[in-house]
Structure formats: structure tokens, C-alpha cells
Write a structure and sequence with these properties.
The chain is mainly β. The chain is built from two helices and seven strands. The protein has helices spanning 44-47, 67-72, and strands at 4-9, 14-19, 24-28, 51-53, 56-59, 63-65, 75-76. The strands form two sheets. The chain has a four-stranded antiparallel beta sheet. Strands 4-5-6 form a three-stranded antiparallel beta sheet. β2 (14-19) and β3 form a beta hairpin. The chain is globular.
Length: 78
């Protein structure tokens, strides 16, 4: 399983991601903004507080997205 080693949240609710396998990917978080606990991400200031912990992207308040989801549903930037 790939681990996220860097994240840059973008203004358009995309996450620019770097993984430990050397890949650089772009994840569109917009489809998640209406789902359960992820509605908190609709606040752009909150969305931009993304950080890396234990190989995945997290936000304050115990919110995270599994690294395999981030990898499998993102597109390559290469």
C-alpha cells in the first residue's frame, strides 16, 4: 500500500499528492463534499488544513481519507 508523503490542498478542492512510490497525483475531493463526515471539507479554510499523518491525508477533528482511496481515485500528474 502506498503512503502519502506530501499534500498541497488547492483552492478548487483538489489535493496535490506525492506518494512514497515516487508518484505525483491529483485527487478531486469535490465528490466527497456532500458525504457524511466529509461535508466539513466544504469549508475551504478547513480543507486547506490538510496534513499528513501515518501515511495519509488528515484534517483536524479525526477526519482522514484512506491512502488507497486517494491513490486509486486520483490521476497522475506525470
Amino acid at each position: 500500500m502506498e503512503s502519502v508523503i506530501r499534500v498541497v490542498p488547492r483552492d478548487n478542492f483538489f489535493l496535490e499528492l506525492w506518494f512514497d512510490d515516487g508518484s505525483h497525483r491529483l485527487f478531486d475531493a469535490r465528490p466527497y463534499l456532500e458525504r457524511g463526515v466529509f461535508v466539513r471539507l466544504k469549508n475551504l479554510d478547513y480543507f486547506k488544513q490538510a496534513y499528513i499523518a501515518f501515511g495519509t491525508v488528515c484534517w483536524p477533528g479525526n477526519l482522514d481519507i484512506a491512502p488507497e482511496t486517494l491513490y486509486d481515485t486520483s490521476i497522475s500528474c506525470a
